[in-house]
Amino acid sequence: MQTATPAQRRASRPRADALRNRERIVTAAREMFVEFGPDVPFDEIARRAGVGNATVYRNFPDRDTLVTEVVCWVLDRTAEEAERALAECADAFEALERFAHAAADERISALCPMVSSTFDESHPDLQAAGERIERLIEKIMDRAKAAGQLRPDVGVGDLTIAVAQLSRPPAGTACFSADRFMHRHLQLFLDGLRAPARSELPGTAVTMEDLRRS
Question: Domain HTH tetR-type: where (predicted)?
Fold first, then answer.
């Protein structure tokens, strides 16, 4: 598992021990952001990561920097899941299903709202990671449509909204204890995406541009 950012986000390659510490910090921060929100104290993140406070601040001098790293890391991991699904699944709809469940497990819905609440969404690292995953989702969906397995009246935004909403735990329910509901209900949604469609959807297919304008 790699938690370092892609090559374009690294000026030089840190030492192996520094990379391991950075990985521990990002992993711990992601877990705690999902569980408790973006205001988790750095000393709590350091404790869970098994490193000192100074190590956290040396890698991430402020909260915005850490949030950016965590969100980009999760987006990169989700993009890698999309690439694996495309490469390993001969069945186009199976690739779509595999990706959707993997994306839900990454808890993007719990992390992305922190971005707009803390800094400019036009951050170049975030934009690059977002554009990469958007292209891959479109590729997965286009492949399923071309195979006649995915109804033609849905867009990337439809899938994105559904995964985000279904991976967000119900009020009063602990995030990780709701997994059995999340994957069950996500599969119900995915079954509704299969072609031929059994009903006509109101409105038009939702694009990512629609989501950005909303």
Answer: 19-78
Q: Is residue 3 part of a domain?
A: no
Q: Indicate which CATH number applies to the domain containing 33.
A: 1.10.10.60
Q: How far apart are CA 110 and CA 73, in angstroms?
A: 14
User: Are residues 116 and 199 both part of a single domain?
Assistant: yes
Cα-based distances in Å from 39 to 96, 117, 153: 34, 12, 40
Maximum alpha-carbon separation in the chain: 58
Tell me which residue range forms the domain holding 57: 12-61
Residues 33 and 72 both lie in one domain: no
The answer to whether residue 160 sits within a structural domain is yes
pTM, full prediction: 0.81
Q: State how far Cα 92 lies from the chain centre.
A: 21
pLDDT tens-digit profile of 16-34? 888 899 999 999 999 898 8
Residue 51, amino acid: V
Residues 22-47: b if buried by 16+ CB within 10 A, e if exposed: bbbbbbbbbbbbbeeebebebeebbe
